[in-house]
Design brief:
The chain is 40% helix and 20% strand. It has 332 residues and is of the alpha/beta class. The protein has 2 domains: 217 residues, Spore Coat Polysaccharide Biosynthesis Protein SpsA, Chain A; 94 residues, no CATH class. Strands 1, 2, 3, 4, 5, 6, 11, 12 and 13 form a 9-stranded mixed β-sheet that branches. α7 packs antiparallel against α8 and α7 packs parallel to α9. The longest helix is centred in the last third of the chain and has 27 residues. It is globular, with a radius of gyration of 19 Å.
Length: 332
Amino acid sequence: MKIAIVILNWNGQKLLEQFLPSVVNFSSKEADVYVADNASTDSSINFVKEHFPTVKTVENQVNGGYAKGYNDALKEIKADIYCLLNSDVEVTDNWLQPIIDVFKTDEKTAVIQPKLLSFKDKTKFEYAGAAGGFVDFFGYPYCRGRVFNHLETDKNQFNDTSDVFWASGACLFIRSKVYFELGGLDEDYFAHQEEIDLCWRTHNLGYNIKYVGSSTVYHVGGATLQETNPQKTFLNFRNSLLNVVKNVPKKWFLFVIFSRLVLDGIAGIKFMIELRPIHTWAIVKAHFSFYKNFFKFLKKRKKLSKKQDYYQHTGIVWQHFALGRKKFKDLK
């Protein structure tokens, strides 16, 4: 089984200096390591070639964001399994073998995520994926170990191997044949939540997605866009709505769309009360962009496979903000 670890880079030499050594030291026996560069203007690629001669490079012609960047790069890389790895991730000894074992023993598993802990506080789960992701009835994403902004402490409660709905794009393993069968990542997302769409479509093809808690990596998070950046708010709200249009089954489609418009409006009011109007404006812009892309995504929806049931919990907004439920085990 040939593994390719592919790190997407854009002007990230400092991150490569800090995190690439762990990837090379703990991965080179089981996998080939690649840096896929998104038309950087710094000296990232020269740095890699000079200091890490065993690491292969792919140089994209444009910065097309996460989705296009990986789509362009993976066309040039031959492997059975791709690992899409953020440049701000520190890996650990023997992180690959538990994941390889699952791929070898379960042919229906197409996507795997390891345990994702915070690099800044290694006792906590990390926001971007924690212990594997889900979406609620209204399409809002959350994770085992992270509900909205509440992060659980890692007390080995998620050391299992289990089915999840989506895997974090910070460290996502996928069978190459499935990646290309799906047509790769949807480039209209640019960045944020495109991995949720990819996993949603993976489920619709009948494959499984798993979390493997015996493999651990540490993620900085926010290295490209911090949580306080309104562009991140814009992309998260818009792309979450696009996920709904593209993937929610017909029987719930109109109700979920209408409900999301109301709930997102409440989120905008919340930002205003918190004196963060720039994020309220980001939600407004996200909705205008969503309306602009609505019919385009309806066409994509018609081309997809049969849409499967997708949610484990009904309304995490109500459960978290109204009922105060902060841990995954408390959700009903």
